[in-house]
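Support request, please re-run this one:
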Amino acid sequence: MPQARGPARIIDPGKALASSVAEMPARSRTEHAHDHAHEQPDVSEVRVRGRRLTRQRQAIWDVLTAQPDAHLSAEQVSDRVRSIMPSLNPSTVYRTLDVLVDDGLVRRTDLGRDRAFYEPAREHLHHHLVCERCDRVTHIHGDALGDVEGRIRAAAGFTLTDREITFFGVCRDCAAPG
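Re-run finished. Output below.
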């Protein structure tokens, strides 16, 4: 038998997130190897793509952009959104993340641990270096890899598509003696 609910509360997800997200760290620490800012898409792009910008979509977007260099699992996104919208069903978060990925606003990437992680899409691709000891994630641009695309094409006749590459290893801090 369903439980009776009280009257619906209208909340401003952006305001609620300002206080709650700051105290919830992402699982992975992130560094960026270049000293420039990345433009990220604006959530208004949801409307441009013919979709409604619901409170739930806005709240999910706000969680993802509160720490734009963080890589959050769907479970982490769901937990953070549900801290301000307790009645939100986790399946709504998963479906919305799929919509945002399909629309190019969010990137889904594999950073290990057998699950997907999400981050706002950037104006250009970057790759990930994941420390297997401390979970630090470092962003690195394609220019640091040289002409890996050309070398792969020459060696294997294989053309890379518009995807990022994730490398696993040990970061500078963890590799340092001491």
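The chain has one domain: 13-175. Residues 74 and 94 are 6 Å apart (CA to CA).
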